Amino acid sequence: xxxxxxxxxxxxxxxxxxxxxxxxxxxxxxxxxxxxxxxxxxxxxxxxxxxxxxxxxxxxxxxxxxxxxxxxxxxxxxxxxxxxxxxxxxxxxxxxxxxxxxxxxxxxxxxxxxxxxxxxxxxxxxxxxxxxxxxxxxxxxxxxxxxxxxxxxxxxxxxxxxxxxxxxxxxxxxxxxxxxxxxxx
Length: 185
What we know:
- The chain has a four-stranded antiparallel β-sheet, with helices on one face.
- Strand 3 and strand 4 form a beta hairpin.
- The longest helix has 72 residues.
- By secondary structure, it is of the alpha+beta class.
- Helix 2 packs across helix 3.
- The protein is built from three helices and four strands.
- The relative contact order is 0.11.
């Protein structure tokens, strides 16, 4: 029979093993959950700061947006779409050149892409390169937007050139009939 000291020793060893097992389980199971909770608390705090900032900026943003909508409603009338008649296709580049010159821009290139007619969607692509300053380009762009045959502008690029700023536009023009490149020749 074991003495009380040996039994006490075994009880202490078992208690120490149980305590170590509890610590290991806690470290493996509970520590990641506490870390996740701490991460969530940090994210919640960051989101609260963002909400406070947005609450401070919202009245000014709303005022500016209303002002912008008023200005856009007044200055950019968009006509209903109206396709270009087939007999007026050859005047499109001249019209683009006239618009650019009236806006104070120098025309570097205007290209009508007959290959875009292969899609058969009743549209034709044009590319235009002009040179001048931004305010004159904005005037030309507004004038272009008032044209009823403009379907959409796909791309506008601005690049610095030795003799000034160049603006590149890629736009689509509505056609009155679906045509194919090379048709009618």
